[in-house]
Amino acid sequence: MARLKIALAPGDGIGPEIMEATLDLFKAVGVDEQAEFLPVEMGASVFAKGNSRGMTDAAIQTVESCGILFKGPMETPKGGGGKSINVTARKLWNAYANLRTFKSLPGVQTVHSRAGIPIDVTVVRENIEDTYGGVEHRLSNDTIQCKRLITAPGCDQVHRFALQTARRMGLTRVHCGHKANIMKMTDGLFLERFRQVARDFPEIEPADVIVDALCMNLVVDPRRYQMIVLPNLQGDIVSDLCAGLVGGLGFAPSANIGTHLAIFEAVHGTAPDIAGKGIANPTSLILSGVMMLRHLGLGYEAATIENALLATLESGTHTGDFGDRSVPPLGTRDFTSAIIERLGQRPGTIPAALVPEKAGPTYVRPPKPAGQQVIRTFKNVVTHVVGCDIYLDSPLSPVALAEEMQRACVDGPFKLTLISNRGTQVWPTGSVYTECVDYYRVRFELKDAVTAGSFGQARCIALLDRVAESFSICSYEVLRTFDGVKGYSLAQGQ
Length: 494
Ligand code: NAI
Known about the structure:
The protein is α/β, with parallel strands linked by helices. The protein is built from 15 helices and 18 strands. The model has no long low-confidence stretch (mean pLDDT 94).
């Protein structure tokens, strides 16, 4: 039978050392009989040649033809236009779900392990959208904007992945973490789509939790949670919080999964301070490799390595970054040999991973898409233009600005209904205590006699044109209804 092909990028700094350790373990359990690793050029050496993507075209082709990338940490160049390879890879290949499992490990002392509180929580973070789109603009002298995009199909993909994973893991409850009490539309959509997708998983209880309360609960009593699915930025923060609960980034595996490609990586960085010294802890990459083997259907190999690693940690064997200081630490190679010696053993103090019968891989690379796919959730929605928000760079007071804006709309279908500053209403009513910056939103909505749907967005553009004659426009949003529901939020105080 043909072996699976896996693209392999050892990474920078300690990357090659911990990758060698992981591949030695793979070899020791016979992964080489099932899979072939194809080296690809990614990271510092590629950036150094002036390639701002940090990966060669040949590397991209290999990853796309394999469908799986196993990577070590990679350096993000400071300045010079080079972007984080990790972010580029996730976006380029639409690896929309970041899966991280956090479990207490024997021999790894933490606040919770000392208190006898075991941790076993999985975080699924949306990986593409949110503020990570990196759509940022300077709008005025004093104001910078970052657009936060949340889409229905993006939510559906990550929620379905989370719930399918929960089903496979036999979990009974999944929490959606969010801030929908404040961001009613964006996080509201994330939560609404979670509830919708969860209907297809009746055996799993869909619960939700506001992200700030979640952080407190995780610290106080992490046993409340089995799996949490979150938008990108909140998920980024919560997953590092969970890493802290189990002893730090060195003990957390990570997978980035998409419809067509999956990337498995250590979550920590290149540790330049210890690179080349042979003392790095390979646990995070080994656990990521275990996740990858399970993804490929190599459950026997994955469980055998996991149990040997747990038995090794349980014995007090450790690298220099953790463990009992009175026991001398081992270097990366000796630590790996200690795991290899324990292959076939199971941990005694915590539940062992179930070792299935040895079987061939089940992974089948999904077919390459013919072109870029347009993914959609809502179709046949009736929309009507009902106004526009125009964002202005202006030093005027709200009252003076209102006079100018009322003059601008006198002839058209719109009337001025609101001026806000940093989201707070400052006209027609407001508080003298509200301090204003140089960036206003002015909202125009239909005059009473005008019916929605009687014209398109060209009238908004005409108004914009008129305002632009005497004001500096920063940006502009059309106000619409979608099946009769307002597609825009109200200002605070409105
Ligand atoms: P880092 O995670 O590389 O290091 C932070 C501290 O943890 C250092 O003291 C380091 O020695 C220690 N450490 C990290 N991994 C370790 C291991 N396996 N064994 C023992 N000690 C370990 O974070 P830092 O210094 O902020 O970033 C260094 C570089 O790594 C940067 O260029 C950054 O962009 C990159 N990076 C790459 C990531 C990736 O490829 N996924 C993730 C995070 C950072």
